[in-house]
Specification:
Low-confidence stretches: none
CATH class: Alpha Beta
Number of domains: 1
Shape: globular
CATH topology: Transcription Regulator spoIIAA
CATH superfamily: STAS domain
Strand order of the largest sheet: 1-2-3-4-5
Radius of gyration: 13 Å
Number of strands: 5
Mean pLDDT: 95
Distance between the termini: 36 Å
Order of helices and strands: EEHEHEHEH
Number of helices: 4
Structural class: alpha/beta
């Protein structure tokens, strides 16, 4: 299964819905390109919706960290929403839950930017 993306705006926040697997060779580069394109377009409030990500490997985790770092370096904020239990556990084990701003709903994440 490949990865697909839907991009939209909600109250001035750029949201990227990710569907599928983020693994080495599948989704990593495209996710990075989507986030960089949003940053290039001047978006400073970005949310990655991971609710429909079925699998995330270590290279996918690295991509999330890279996207987060790129956003910070360019004066933007990147937040995550709707983590599956597996992804939440993976980020907890790697101590990355303390790095990312994570929300259980889009509404809560959008409101956190206000």
């Amino acid at each position: 299964m490949s990865v697909t993306f839907r991009e939209r705006e909600n109250s001035g926040v750029h949201i990227i819905d990710v569907v599928g697997r983020i693994t080495l060779g599948s989704g990593n580069q495209e996710l990075r390109e989507r986030v960089n394109a949003a940053l290039d377009a001047g978006k400073t409030k970005i949310i990655l919706n991971l609710g429909e990500v079925s699998y995330l490997d270590s290279s996918g985790v690295g991509t999330l960290v890279g996207c987060f770092t790129s956003a910070q370096n360019r004066g933007a904020t990147l937040k995550l929403i709707n983590l599956t239990n597996k992804i939440r556990d993976l980020l907890a084990i790697t101590k990355l839950l303390t790095v990312f701003d994570v929300y259980d709903s889009e509404e809560a994440a959008v409101n956190s930017f206000q």
